Amino acid sequence: MLKINEEKLVQFALQGNIIPPLCFGWEVTRQGEGKVYPSVGGITYNVKIGDSVFGFEADHVEPGVSCIAGSFSDRRTANPNLSFNAFSCIGNEVTLISGAAKGKKGTVTGHHGGVEHVLVDFPQTVLQKLTYDDKILVRAVGQGLKLLDYPEITVTGLDPKLLKKIPIRSNKRSLTVPVVAMVPAELMGSGMGHNDSFKGDYDIQTSDPSVLKKYDLEKLRFGDFVAIIDHESTFGWSYKKGAVSIAVVVHGNSFLAGHGPGVQTVLTSREGRIEPVLNAKANLKTYLGIGRGGR
Questions:
Q1: Quick one: fold of 6-140?
Q2: Burial status of residue 247 (CB atoms within 10 A of its CB: 0-12, 13-18, 19 or more)
Q3: Please, where are the H alpha helices in the chain?
Q4: Which of 141, 186, 245, 251 could share a disulfide with 228, CB 3.0–4.6 Å?
Q5: In the CATH hierarchy, which top-level class contains the domain 154-288?
């Protein structure tokens, strides 16, 4: 069993609200086409953890419910939304504190950088009752999580209860972590160079179908765990030969240049102390029982 500092982690409440879908108008795809696609935000009824990131006519679509703290106009910079994003961790419990579904529970499934959204999975029966007036409370815990026997591995944005559910194997030098795919460094795009890996995501570029097929990335689903090879994310996303990062797929594919499915980093080692192993079941759906066909 992994030794962690769980008893030292701060647990506190973060309050947020649901943000309506955003429309960016005409956007030009990497093929030079003008498109108006459903995109980020909203109460999304039919896009769920476990679904294909390529399965919808959409761009950067977010599964489940998209949430912020504060108003639409200040969501990028206001302190309430900064803390809401930074301290909401994948696997955190969410409670509705208003509306027809008051008291019902959900689960944080990731952050989407740029728009600064926290994404939440709710059961379908709860989704049907939600409105944009409803408020949520996140039981935030996870930032500051450490692997006591592996100081070379950094953990970010991960609830300790979820960490315990992942079938990680340890040896003297490294941790073996299940992933659905290995992503080569050259495919990583939008988000590279940003230093906010503790609260955002960066994108797997999908402009070359032959490369997607080569690395078996055509089957990616929301909630999948993937390994980013030769990338480290300790203080931001950057290339480093021999480094390995583990990330969770948080948003859908994009048709824009330099973009694609977004992944949020949860584990990283610049010394390569992480050994990814392929496992098709490495998904939040498996570990938490949420999403398509879940609770």
A1: Thrombin, subunit H (2.40.10)
A2: buried
A3: 79-87, 124-127, 160-165, 209-214, 284-288
A4: 245
A5: mainly beta
